[in-house]
Amino acid sequence: xxxxxxxxxxxxxxxxxxxxxxxxxxxxxxxxxxxxxxxxxxxxxxxxxxxxxxxxxxxxxxxxxxxxxxxxxxxxxxxxxxxxxxxxxxxxxxxxxxxxxxxxxxxxxxxxxxxxxxxxxxxxxxxxxxxxxxxxxxxxxxxxxxxxxxxxxxxxxxxxxxxxxxxxxxxxxxxxxxxxxxxxxxxxxxxxxxxxxxxxxxxxxxxxxxxxxxxxxxxxxxxxxxxxxxxxxxxxxxxxxxxxxxxxxxxxxxxxxxxxxxxxxxxxxxxxxxxxxxxxxxxxxxxxxxxxxxxxxxxxxxxxxxxxxxxxxxxxxxxxxxxxxxxxxxxxxxxxxxxxxxxxxxxxxxxxxxxxxxxxxxxxxxxxxxxxxxxxxxxxxxxxxxxxx
Length: 389
Prior knowledge:
- By secondary structure, this protein is of the alpha/beta class.
- The chain has two domains: 137 residues, Aspartate Aminotransferase, domain 1 (Alpha-Beta Complex); 234 residues, Aspartate Aminotransferase, domain 2 (3-Layer(aba) Sandwich).
- It has 13 helices and 15 strands.
- Helix 6 packs parallel to helix 7.
């Protein structure tokens, strides 16, 4: 029997990153490809103790079905934190999701019709493209520089359902919008009536100074804000959240109910138990220090080994370097040769909605030791010199 598949199923494609990660499982490969947080940062003991307390004090509630909106005290905590960052939000506007990736899917489901336009950065997060594509949008790539989307270019997105933006240490480029760019961007989107979906999984991972205020703090009624516990606690918990204007929240909630009823209540209670007394205030700075040291190691290795004609920015937070190779180099074609030399990266073409730059690639520096970072970058440089002398 052959099932007739929906048109949207034809638009679903495997994640190139997940496919590359399979390659990196080969023994000896130094993977600078995956966007995974370092497992060394997971607060294992705090999680164990919190899980024990939850199962001791509220086992039936923790293991039972729960409200689709999420665990009340956790929603209150999220709202309080965001208010401290200038986003005036109530707990009633917070929807706990099964990872912030689900938030992207819910936003796509509610906001995108077939043929409607969606504005994205260039490059942008591959997972967002995957989440939105089944709803059959027409992507509009907004021109960007090293500071993010160019406000004076946003007129090309007039009439789009929303602009998807990652202002803090963007995946894949690592760039962070400064305050002036945020002000100009949000002034422009309000002028042309373009709502914003702001995705902020990396905002707490700054190295020297916190990033400027959230985009949503500048136009709360026009923004859907996505956050995550994956990068500051553990991704295996699959815990994120959406903060939405009150007019949009009910439909996002209904989409959530149809998708999975609710995010696991046990996970929510454990996370709240971990964070309610301020553990993140002590824990996150240790992540920042570790990642900054690894960032410095990758910067030094790139400066030492990469041949002329290569360009990169040094990220001030997050997990990624974005490299532009000399013109004419196809990073996708280069990848198998890099694997032969013992390292892996993610070709940059996967991060473009259209008109990909083939000579780009992404390197992650957080899951590999400083010594292995140096070896991996040296292998990349060796491959580039071998194939494009």
